[in-house]
């Protein structure tokens, strides 16, 4: 697992956008994990397709 820690200085709007980005990343990660746990023989390409669907593409 990769952990990055940083001290940031910014506006409230920038903090809000950053929080939304983190929540989006967590949602995508959790969705991929659930898909992997619920389906057998999931390949990397399957997870890439899922991420594309989640992105609306």
Which range does the strand content fall in? under 5%
Sequence stretches where pLDDT stays below 50 over 5 or more residues: none
The residue fraction in helices comes out at: 55-70%
Count of helix runs: 2
* Helix/sheet category: mainly alpha
Largest sheet: none
The coarse overall form would be elongated
Extended strand count? 0
Distance between the first and last residues' Cα: 28 Å
Radius of gyration: 15 Å
How do the helices and strands follow one another from N- to C-terminus? HH
Overall residue-averaged pLDDT value: 91
Care to describe what's here?
- With about 55 residues, the chain is an all-alpha fold.
- Helix content is about 70%, strand content about 0%.
- The protein has 2 helices and no strands.
- Helix 1 (about 10-40) packs across helix 2.
- It is elongated and about 45 Å long.
In short:
The protein is built from two helices and no strands. It has helices at 12-38, 44-55.
Keywords:
57 residues, mainly alpha, 2 helices, 68% helix
Architecture blueprint of SSEs:
Elements: H1 12-38, H2 44-55
